[in-house]
Amino acid sequence: MTASQRARLEASGLSVHHVPLIQTKETHIPPPVERFDWLVVTSQNAVPALQNLTRDVKVAAVGEKTKRALEAEGFTVSLMPETYTGEALFKQLLDVVSTDDVVLFARGNLANTSHMSMLPHVQDWVVYETVPVPLTPAQQQQLEIVKALLVLSPSAVEALTPYLSRFNGTWYAIGEVTERAVRQVSTLPIRVPECYTMDALIQCVGEDFS
């Protein structure tokens, strides 16, 4: 969360608590192929592991933050879906990937892999692992007074699941994939922005609490 995003929430009269629920670590596994035509990236967390890859390749990014992270490393992003989900990304790739193209999918260990079957030659490459960070006893108790819980990934929802008996507010999920993860563990209200970005999520909160 940036300082400006935090300030926007505080301007709505909210006390903001930023609690990292997951950590990521690189696997240092080498890519399964040396030559490929497309690089697919569905999380900015994957980008640090791509430094040694060729830049002479077509790149598909799941959303704006991943796109910016890739471009900062010298990659040129050729494709980004209007809806920031892995499913939308792979569906759009169907229109541009030829039957002979090799696609390298750089992902985290918890990423959804069901979309890979849409394309004929996809090489799976797990470049980072996600590790949950347990809440402290004080953070667990604090959940009882939380009114708005912003979650940015299914992994964050999973990390919160052991403590949900303490929460009775409204969920704010960054997109439909995270929303589905919330609905599997909670019957509380959920808000999802039309655009799957942190800024749009904060705007939802501001509308509800201003």
Automatic annotation (TrEMBL):
- Write out the catalysed reaction: hydroxymethylbilane = uroporphyrinogen III + H2O
- Look up the record and name the pathway of this protein: Porphyrin-containing compound metabolism; protoporphyrin-IX biosynthesis; coproporphyrinogen-III from 5-aminolevulinate: step 3/4
Q: Is Lyase set as a keyword in this record?
A: yes
Which superkingdom, per the lineage? Bacteria
- The catalytic activity of this protein is classed by the Enzyme Commission as 4.2.1.75
Q: Which Pfam families does this chain map to? A: HEM4 (PF02602)
Q: Top enzyme class of this protein?
A: lyase
GO molecular function annotation: uroporphyrinogen-III synthase activity
Q: Where is the Tetrapyrrole biosynthesis uroporphyrinogen III synthase domain?
A: 7-203
Q: Which CDD domains match?
A: HemD
InterPro entries, per database record: 4pyrrol_syn_uPrphyn_synt_sf, 4pyrrol_synth_uPrphyn_synth, UROS/Hem4
Query: Keywords, A to Z?
Result: Lyase, Porphyrin biosynthesis
Q: What are the BP-aspect GO terms?
A: protoporphyrinogen IX biosynthetic process; uroporphyrinogen III biosynthetic process
Q: What does this protein do?
A: Catalyzes cyclization of the linear tetrapyrrole, hydroxymethylbilane, to the macrocyclic uroporphyrinogen III.
Assigned protein family:
Belongs to the uroporphyrinogen-III synthase family.
Q: Which PANTHER family match?
A: UROPORPHYRINOGEN-III SYNTHASE, CHLOROPLASTIC
This chain's protein is named Uroporphyrinogen-III synthase
Origin organism of this chain? Exiguobacterium sp. (strain ATCC BAA-1283 / AT1b)
